[in-house]
Design a protein that fits this description.
This protein is α+β, with helices and mostly antiparallel strands. The protein contains 34 helices and 30 strands. It is 40% helix and 17% strand. α10 packs antiparallel against α11 and α27 packs across α28. This is Tetratricopeptide repeat protein 18.
Length: 1057
């Protein structure tokens, strides 16, 4: 028999009779019926749950407040009935002052053994202990005399008060009111009386609570538990210090049987609602009526009705409309707060957990809803209002539940539905969704989510604040979910924690076990603070230089804000660094510490000032390092224009003369990677090297790429097959090691996205989105990369680009500059939609050129553009890239046509963008004997200032002029080639040949001597060929300056420049 359940699923009901009969029909030939003998089946074994009683007895009460009135202790639990052990049944849970030292009465609390529902009930609802004073009926203004008389009251008053309290208790149970509500009721009755007497009432003095999760263990529970009763500070009358005192109660709790027998709980889930931001003014006025429910909702339609299944989880109430910075940072028990008083925020220490809100990092390490701008910069914690909750629910999870959660997370079966409602959960105003897939990533047990709350219907409220001119961002809430252990791995039983007094308290809170290190002494926190300090000082210097600021008065507003930011930053640095290195106890020691801090920070500022590097501001690199980078640029230009012999010779000269071996070695490494010489690049990592220099991060990136490419190209099939997985594993380790760098996290995200691995995508996005404001390492000591030779300018992204898209572009450029073209291509795939079709073609084709993937099957595209300025520039870029694509695959004639068309159609101000094309055009034209065209091409590459050193265009323009027999014009260009700080004998050889042809024998001889200065360096065969063309009969043998008209030395230098 089948029947449909509530959720639309089929439910089959089966018979449970003790005897069954089975009939088996005979084959069609015989058609005989055989009846089997009835089979006796044992009855099903019923599992009978055992109720275990917890006995609670007051042993000791210390430091009672001196009030003058009789005191009472009230015990209360929201979901379970406490009973007093006496002959007559009663649920009254009061201990009177005369019983405080009698160790009675004893109360019992019933718990079902091995019951998961009871475990969750007691896990989320602590036992509440309240201390009251009973103020009897008295004449107005006569309370002091009443105090003294009450100290000697007889037991008859106690009995009367007990009966009165019993009546009140019964009446409160009928009306559904809790103990705290009774208090408020009595206070209202007393205050509203208009006679000469004030009626008897209870006044709350202090409260505390006991976490009952510690009861659940596999052996009988017995322990003496201290519960601190913290005083109430909201009482209407002025209290003295003796009355506002924290009392200590010692309770003896024990059970006859263990509460856990055949059951293990393996995990705990902590759900914390922090605050709601960007809240409309109307909702602030209704804050006490608002609640937020959290439910599981299926991501796919279920049942015959095709509806999304919703499973309620928990609710939060008691919002407070407060300025963000004024909130109490304690996380409290939601159920305890609600039971005490849902509309008043006081006594947080009476219901707090072990967790706190960190105001300085309120909007850090949040997993933001993707591609949503929440206008965080407009939220000022000192002035902005928010709906504050800061409450927590705790749930118990066993292994079966953990597996269900793991499967749901990994398969993306359910999401968390957040609904903001008014009065009742059915009256939903706003809702949002959280995808918990991040908990499917290995080792993740903790995450704070920031999710947008969108109106369910057409919003009836104005989303703009009434007192502010700027619009608010979308309303969002921050919710923290933490598991005691990651749910996607085997969990160890936690009942063992309750058997150990030292471990027992760990179950009250939840902290990230691996990923977040929130310790203020952590080195990563210091690194981040000092990077922020360096960036602030650098930006300030840049603004002063660019704006030509002469005095503080010129930019007073800027410096005012700067001073505030700098002060806050220095306070953090002081607390996290100097105050730890130099602990202080006196004012004098503190002043000495500040003196050391001032000296170190001033030295740091001076170092930043001398090493700053901005547009229009001198580079911070030393002059020798600048020369080294310039020579490496020259060498790479020679190599990429076909002058391999000259490039090798220049590299050897640079190697001999380089003083900064670190930068030279790194530049050599990058050059090898860019030219796909991975075996040569790998030798760099076998040599000892410094690990503390600022380029170590980039070296690790390059090493990762080189290892990956070598494994991919390995002839060993086992190595090549495992190359990708090994690379991902190393990338994860690098991202964790350099956790303040955004590049590895973004690359890892892109790989996860290609594999549609949602947990990895959320985890890596959680990481890199919280690093946007952290300044990373700067690659400002590298020669011009090959990618920048092809595409020297950044294309403008579309207006629809998200913040993540704008952050991905620099990471793509970084990998492209390092020669990691495969990594660059993976990152570019994620945001290529932010560019036009032409720009995407240019970038992808450039990456193909650099990876030597342009073969005969590659099709050159010529995408039409408009006649605007940008359209013409895109047309020229296509000529530039298409020409270089043809050049790469050896079609020099086609390449020359593209380059020549580019030369004729480019504006003078745009020609620096296409330097590589013009150099290659000049070289191709020179080889074909088109010297005039070569001269025109090299002219576009010459530096504007003659003081700027540049070898390649000067050298080949001089040679082109030489071959046109314009010898005098060739001398200045060839002579400038001698200023590049690298000895090249061919330059001197051509100068000697030119002077010899001009009958300047002495000058020719001096030049030739210099050319042959180093016999181990060979002179080009072309020079000897040119010398062979000279007729000996035309050469004067006189080489001294004796009046020969051909030997006039008018200028002190050799060349007469």
């Amino acid at each position: 028999m089948e029947q449909k359940g509530k959720d639309g699923s089929q439910i089959r009901h089966t018979s449970r009779t003790a005897r069954t009969s089975r009939r088996v029909r005979q084959t069609l030939q015989s058609r005989e019926t055989i009846e089997e003998e009835p089979v006796e089946q044992p009855p099903e074994r019923k599992i009978i749950q055992q109720r275990v009683f917890l006995y609670i007895q007051l042993n000791e009460l210390l430091k009672l407040p001196d009030t003058g009135y009789p005191l009472e202790l009230h015990l209360y639990h929201a979901k379970s009935t406490l009973q007093k052990m006496q002959e007559r049944y009663t649920t009254k849970t009061i201990i009177y002052q005369k019983e405080f030292n009698l160790k009675k009465p004893v109360f019992t609390l019933g718990v079902m053994q091995d019951d998961i529902e009871d475990m969750n009930t007691f896990s989320d609802n602590p036992l509440l202990v309240s201390l009251y004073q009973r103020i009897p009926r008295h004449r107005k203004g006569d309370s002091n005399r009443t105090k003294m008389s009450q100290l000697g009251t007889s037991s008859s008053f106690t009995d009367a008060s007990q009966s009165s309290a019993t009546k009140k208790s019964k009446r409160s149970r009928r009306s559904g009111k809790k103990s705290s509500d009774i208090l408020l009721l009595w206070e209202e009755e007393g205050e509203g009386e208009e006679g000469e007497y004030v009626e008897e009432r209870l006044e709350l003095l202090s409260r505390g609570h006991c976490d009952l999760l510690q009861l659940f263990q596999r052996r009988r529970f017995i322990s003496d538990i201290n519960i601190l009763l913290y005083p109430m500070h909201h009482v209407p009358e002025q209290k003295t210090f003796r009355e506002l005192i924290t009392s200590t109660t010692v309770w003896h709790m024990y059970s006859i049987l263990p509460i856990l027998k055949n059951f293990d709980f393996t995990n705990l889930a902590f759900v914390t609602l922090e605050s709601i931001y960007n809240v409309p003014e109307e909702l602030h006025m209704q804050s006490t009526d608002l609640g937020l429910s959290v439910s599981f909702r299926s991501t796919q339609l279920e049942g015959e009705e095709d509806v999304l299944r919703i499973i309620p989880l928990c609710t939060f109430k008691g919002f407070g409309s407060q300025v963000i910075s004024d909130q109490n940072t304690s996380i409290v028990w939601e159920n305890l707060k609600r039971d005490l008083n849902p509309h008043v925020h006081f006594g947080f220490n009476q219901m707090e957990t072990n967790s706190r809100i960190k105001l300085p990092r309120l909007f850090r390490m949040l997993l933001w809803e993707q591609d949503v701008d929440f206008f965080i910069n407009q939220i000022d914690p000192l002035t902005t209002m928010a709906l504050i909750n800061n409450s927590l629910h705790r749930f118990v999870i066993n292994e079966e539940m953990r597996k269900i959660l793991e499967e749901s997370v990994l398969n993306n079966s359910y999401e968390l539905l957040l609904q903001l409602y008014k009065d009742t959960p059915h009256n939903v105003l706003y809702e949002g969704v959280i995808n918990p897939s991040i908990f499917g990533y290995p080792g993740v047990n903790h995450c704070r989510f920031a999710t947008r709350l969108s109106p369910v219907n057409v919003p009836e409220v104005d989303l703009r604040p009434t007192l502010e001119a700027t619009p608010m961002g979308p309303m969002f809430c921050t919710l923290k979910i933490c598991f005691f252990q990651p749910i996607c791995q085997r969990n160890d039983p936690l009942d063992k924690y309750n058997e150990n007094l030292l471990k027992r308290s760990k179950l009250r809170g939840c902290f990230d076990i691996q990923l977040l290190k929130e310790d203020e002494n952590d080195t990563d926190v210091l690194t981040e603070l000092y990077q922020e300090f360096d960036k602030l000082i650098s930006d300030t210097i840049g603004i002063i230089v660019k704006k030509d600021v002469r005095s503080i008065e010129e930019k007073q507003d800027f410096f005012c804000c700067l001073l505030s930011t700098l002060s806050n930053l220095m306070l953090k640095i002081c607390g996290c660094d100097f105050n730890i290195r130099m602990p202080t106890e006196t004012n004098i020691e503190f002043r000495e510490m500040l003196t050391h801090m001032y000296k170190e920070l001033i030295d740091r500022v001076y170092g930043i000032f001398t090493a700053c590097c901005y547009e229009g501001f001198p580079s911070g690199l030393p002059a020798k390092d600048k020369d080294l980078i310039r020579l490496m640029d020259e060498m790479r230009l020679l190599s990429n224009t076909g002058q391999r012999d000259l490039a090798i010779h220049m590299y050897e000269e640079i190697d001999r003369s380089a003083t900064n071996r670190v930068i030279f070695g790194f530049a050599t490494l990058i050059n090898s990677v860019e030219n796909l010489q991975f075996q040569q690049a790998a030798t760099f990592f076998t040599k000892p090297r410094r690990t503390e220099w600022r380029g170590e991060y980039f070296t690790l990136l390059v090493q990762l790429y080189v290892d990956y490419m070598m494994d991919m190209g390995s002839e060993d099939e086992e190595i090549s097959t495992a190359a990708f997985s090994n690379m991902l594993d190393k990338l994860r380790q690098l991202a964790t090691k350099k956790k303040l760098e955004v590049g590895p996290w973004i690359l890892l995200y892109c790989y996860y996205k290609l594999a549609h691995y949602r947990p990895g995508m959320d985890f890596t996005r959680w990481k890199f989105e919280n690093l946007y404001e952290v300044s990373g390492e700067q690659l400002d000591f590298l020669p011009l990369s090959l990618y920048e030779l092809y595409l020297p300018v950044d294309f403008e992204m579309s207006t629809t680009s998200t913040l993540a898209n704008t952050k991905f572009y620099p990471v793509f450029k970084l990998f492209a500059r390092l020669g990691a073209y495969v990594f660059a291509g993976i990152v570019f795939t994620d945001f290529e939609q932010c560019f036009t079709t032409v720009e995407v073609y240019l970038i992808k084709t450039t990456l193909k050129i650099l990876q030597r993937q342009i073969d005969d099957n590659f099709k050159i595209q010529e995408i039409p553009t408009d006649k605007s300025e940008n359209g013409m520039l895109m047309r020229n870029y296509q000529l530039h890239i298409n020409g270089n694509a043809e050049y790469t695959r050896g079609r020099c004639d086609e390449a020359l046509k593209y380059f020549e068309k580019l030369l004729n159609g480019t504006k003078p101000e745009d020609r620096p963008f296409f330097k590589l094309s013009f150099l290659r055009l000049g070289q191709l034209a020179f080889e074909k004997g088109l010297y005039e065209l070569a001269i025109s091409a090299f002219d576009t590459c010459l530096p504007a200032s003659k003081k700027e050193k540049m070898f390649l265009p000067n050298y080949f323009k001089g040679l082109a002029l030489y071959h046109l027999d314009r010898l005098e014009e060739a001398i200045p260009f060839l002579s400038r080639c001698t200023e590049v700080d690298v000895f090249i004998p061919d330059v001197w050889g051509y100068l000697a040949t030119i002077n010899l042809r001009l009958n300047r024998n002495k000058t020719a001889l001096e030049c030739w001597k210099i050319a042959k200065m180093y016999p181990e360096l060979n002179i080009s065969r072309q020079i000897y060929a040119e010398l062979d063309k000279i007729k000996f009969s035309d050469v004067h043998l006189l080489v001294d300056d004796d009046g020969n008209p051909a030997e006039k030395m008018d200028k002190p230098n050799i060349f007469g420049l």
